[in-house]
Amino acid sequence: MHLPLTLGTLSAALLPLTLSAQKADRPNVILLVADDLGYGDLSCYGAERVSTPHTDGLARTGIRFTDVHAVAATSTPSRFSLLTGEYAWRKKGREVASGDAAMIIEPDCFTLADLFKSLGYATAAVGKWHLGLGSVTGAQDWNAPLPQALGDIGFDYSYIMAATADRVPAVFIENGSVANYDPSAPIEVDYRKPFPGEPTGKDNPELLYNLKSSHGHDQAIVNGIGRIGYMRGGGTALWKDENIADSIAVHATRFIEKHAGEPFFLYLATNDIHVPRFPHERFRGRSPMGLRGEAILQFDWTVGQVLSKLEELGIRDNTLIILTSDNGPVIDDGYQDGARELLGGHRPSGPLRGFKYSAYEGGTAVPFIVSWPAVVRSRGTSGALLSQVDLMRSLGSLLGARFPRGSAPDSRDFHEALLGKDGEGAPFVIESSNTLSIRDRKWKYIAPGGGGPMITWGPEIETGYRPYPQLFDLSDKREAENRIETHSAEYLRLRDLLEKVVDGRYLQ
Predict the structure, then answer these.
(1) Do 434 and 449 touch, CB atoms closer than 8 A?
(2) Cα separation, 55 vs 44, whole angstroms
């Protein structure tokens, strides 16, 4: 269904976009993916205890979406689906990855980076990766070029964290090799047993001088912070957490500057809000919410750095920026950083129930902003229902790309919704945690799932799992009442549709 040009609160016109115009003046594309940034964590989404002026400005020049979903409530499967157009749950081994995981996206997979590369774009990934490196899990030689890295899946340039900041190895990887490698301190990583003589957070808590653990995160110690996994060596290649955002911003803006004269695609994955939260000193004391609030400010600073560089180079107008997050927020995720105590009235998930790891909407509902000044001229919102898995087909259609047979099997084309021309979007989206959910604009079905109602290993989060099916009327954002008994027809409709998608019987 196509709505009139004035869509909801969308107030200004959209310039016509034709295929010939695309070919003549292809936009640069920046996919800016925050880590653990919640639906309610930005001031343009209603947050009052934190101000995000650069992100808010991006929303004012584009479209702020209110019903967009990550595929999964955790990072690795969410990012896999975004970059491949395939649901991560279709194959085992795509769950949250350890820092020594092998490449989860296989080299013969046609990725979002491959799509842009096929169109003549320069491509780069900068920041958090968390999708594995090397060809064999646990067998990487971090002291030499990795046999498989991002160059094998379409990225011309990469400067990445192997996994997350709370997992070793605590070094950046540039084009498949450890950045600033220190030959005097060869790197060893083990996720099974500690290295003799190396202190750990569990046995040497006195060495956790920057952040102490609240649960887990008590193995290797790097920069006075406990991590997941064991590591020794690294020397001058080891990162300092307070400088991670600067490193990511510098390498991202350098790539933009280098390729300002040609179309480029930048997958920019920030780290800030993910634990351990340890932002740069210049952000300290600027948020009443302490380290988590300061991390949000640091994220917004990175957005500002990117926008400033684009303006400086005179390429902002023809740069399509999509800003989103990989999953819902989490408050205490393993460190004593005051996030829970200083939260005040802030609601990281906004009006939604649930957080990261949860089957409720707060687990996958994410901020989503589209800004492309040369084409999308608006200062409004869109309620179109969208999933990140659909970005690959949507962007491909927008740019006139060709897809190899069998690629992006779960991705659908909703590029008109991205541009604000279609206010409906997808007929349904699928969400995953430890169970699968399916929802349309009105109803949500959560399939029966194992596990208790609360996470037992750390954060105080409702899982949403029940041994019986659940149906929620989404006009109640708290998902408070199971409507199975009173709306059995809606339950059966969504259950059957989910089964068709899982079995590959759903025809788009």
Answers:
(1) yes
(2) 8
